[in-house]
């Protein structure tokens, strides 16, 4: 590597990504141009992948606080993509991360990826960021807990915390192909729920934009302009992939056909407004799911 490149990167501002999965990896080619990027991961087998992308991997686990001690002095900007712990009503992983970062007092900007699931079932109503949260499953309850902890921490420590509430993420490798191939049923139109979407590339770009333009303690709904019921979304993908459309059944029949976890995703209906994204000037690569499918 040329010495001038090494010297350039030495003087770049530092950023830490916590939980660098698919969306995080889509950010890396953009971030490494402007930041010295660190990635917290518990998987040593991914070290080389991150190094090849220009990032510096750090071994650590949000379930083991002792492994987080070195995070306090690493970076002034943090992107938190890691999911909460799989059980309980408290997000103890985010709590551990906050405690580790607080010891250094270096963090000034923090972007957290939450979920639109915090709104619960809204019976198809259109909602915005000022709609009261009403989580109806334990996964969403943990997300609300994380949001509250982060906003309180930001206010107390002078950290600009930006929260993105994210719906269903899709991409070429994140379409419901297996579900369609299995012929998993969907709900009949009169009982179906509205679902919301964002392409993984758009979420990566939006997260990065929030580093620069997101207001302190600001919440954004990270949704595209799609307004579809769930079965209609499956039909769009099925038609594009030349697969059979899923059979439609009523809710009582569906309960006998799918797992309780899958059923929970199919019982909450909301239409998410993304109007607030205008204040940071975000432009979608894929304004709707149909736009994406038409271009692939």
UniProtKB/TrEMBL annotation:
Gene Ontology annotations for the cellular component aspect, listed alphabetically: cytoplasm
Lineage per the UniProt record: Bacteria, Pseudomonadati, Pseudomonadota, Betaproteobacteria, Burkholderiales
Protein name in UniProt: Nucleoside-diphosphate-sugar epimerase
InterPro entries according to UniProt: Epimerase_deHydtase, NAD(P)-bd_dom_sf, NAD(P)-dependent_oxidoreduct
Domain NAD-dependent epimerase/dehydratase: 15-222
Organism field: Polynucleobacter kasalickyi
Domain of life of the organism encoding this protein: Bacteria
Pfam families to which the protein is assigned, alphabetical: Epimerase (PF01370)
Annotated signal peptide: none
PANTHER family: NAD(P)-BINDING DOMAIN-CONTAINING PROTEIN-RELATED (PTHR48079:SF6), PROTEIN YEEZ (PTHR48079)
SUPFAM superfamilies membership: NAD(P)-binding Rossmann-fold domains (SSF51735)
Record-level Gene Ontology MF annotations: aldehyde dehydrogenase (NAD+) activity
